[in-house]
Amino acid sequence: MKRRRWGMAWLALLPMALTVLLAYLGTTLWTLRVSLSSSRTFPRDDFVGLAQYQRLFENERWLQSLGNLAVYGLLFMLACMVIGFALAVFIDQKVRGEGLLRTAFLYPYAMSFVATGLVWQWVLNPGAGLQPALQQLGWSDFTFDWIIDQDKVIYTVVIASVWQAAGLVMAMLLAGLRGIDEDIWKAARMDGIPAWRVYLSIVLPMLAPTLATVFVLLSTAVVKVFDAVVAMTQGGPGTASDVPAKFIMDHLFGRANIALASAGAIVLLLTVVVLVAPLLYARSRARAREGA
Predict the structure, then answer these.
(1) Where does the UniProt annotation place the signal sequence (predicted)?
(2) What is the pLDDT of residues 115-131, one digit of tens each?
(3) Is the entire prediction scored with pTM above 0.85?
């Protein structure tokens, strides 16, 4: 009977195991193989070594997209962490209308960025959005044309992305805050410790596992950012807001260069591994020490 149960359990896991092996691992290996070939429109069964990777890092557009991704990732993650934590602390004070506020802050994350990106594109449009609206209200010198400024357009993508993702960070950190023992706060009040000190020295270290999870989610979102850029700027003006994922898609479908696109995809995969693997390893070691 026990063997039968084990057999049924493994049978239930079989579809997911096949998905991981074929859809994930298999396609990753196929992408790696293509990146080592001279494939253009269709795959070729040849081998050119790391030539595609050399071409990739000699491509100015790719280097620009990496720079944009670095700026976007740093500002996006920092802003989401700070705003999400501030919103979580605010709601944790048992404010009135807590349920409504949680829904309002989390709602943007449930929306498609294709739709919300178009809305933000309109809001930030200097000819039809926020700028002319405020000028008509009397602020005639007000200008906000970042979305058409090559030096500032990437910041508009950050603003829209933070608006969408900060609510998720808020929800996760709020759950962590609600799990902290109330006796800690009572003891801190009795000792006269300021609230900011309690958050900095006690609460944040206790939220370390939750913060690690948030970091993983945000970092993977940064690496694969695509829809926000396409919906708002199409990578423009010019290539000023280009990101690696858009570079890959353009070369895969628009320029018929699947080898170069595959090389870019492998680089992005390695970036995710470099960011996430040490964190996952540290968490596994911590769990092992706790279980010992």
Answers:
(1) none
(2) 888 889 888 888 888 88
(3) yes
